[in-house]
Amino acid sequence: MAETAKKLMNHNEKKKISLYSVGINLLLSLIKIIGGVVSGSAALIADGVHSLSDLAASLSVYVGIVISNKKSDLFPQGLYKVENLVALISAFAIFFAGYEIGKDVLFEESEPIKNLTVAIVVIGLTVLITYLYSRWEKQKAIELNSPSLLADAEHIKTDFYTALVVLVGVLGQYFGYPIVEKIAVVIVIYFIFHSGFEILKEAIKVLLDASLDHESIEKIKEILNNEPVIKNINAITGRNAGSYKFVQLDLALNTDSLKEAHELAHKIEKDIKEQMPFVEKVVIHYQ
Ligand SMILES: [Zn+2]
Questions:
Q1: CA of residue 195 to ligand 1 center, whole Å
Q2: Residue 22: pLDDT above 80?
Q3: Which domains does the chain have, with CATH numbers?
């Protein structure tokens, strides 16, 4: 009972933090795009579109977490893959946005900075928000043992550095070196495509029912090797759906006692779920 309550609490906490990330990315997109238009900075607008791509990614994580505990008669396996479908669509939107920005900024005459103060204030805010939020989220991710929140925190930390690149670009353009701004935009476009590609890769992998990643399998082996009752690990298989992993184990045991085997199965499932967040289900066959 205590365990179920804790799981629910962690689930709600993750849901809350992933919603904060959505809010942060929405805020960053808005101030960068508005600030970019008002100040006349192409680099800032490009970074605003980059934040829109981050918004799409954080939204799909949030949708995934919300949907993950909903099941219906029509979809008894749950709707985990809706998250990946949303991600797939957003990846293409991101590539398109990156292409549009690249085309505009690289092949057209660059515009002078109209309002340096606005650009500096927006970049200053971005630096402050990304620095503080990534630090806070990283700490929370460690507390909740959540790899997806940790990845999000690391990403927002790179957004902090991107903001510094944009600052250099804006100053370059302002002081009469438009090439500096074009270079800054190229770097930002790289981040846009990178984030789109990451989303696309994950989505396709999961939609095609790719098996568990190597890292997860090694981690499960490590957990199983701590159990002397296990004589042999015949197979570790599983699949991904949404942010979640479904694990199947085939084990040979050193015991004939059904009770002992049953207790072991419970313990293994508990250990795996505790040490590997986002494992939704562990099915164990033993002989
Ligand atoms: Zn980003």
A1: 7
A2: yes
A3: 2-207 (1.20.1510), 214-286 (3.30.70.1350)
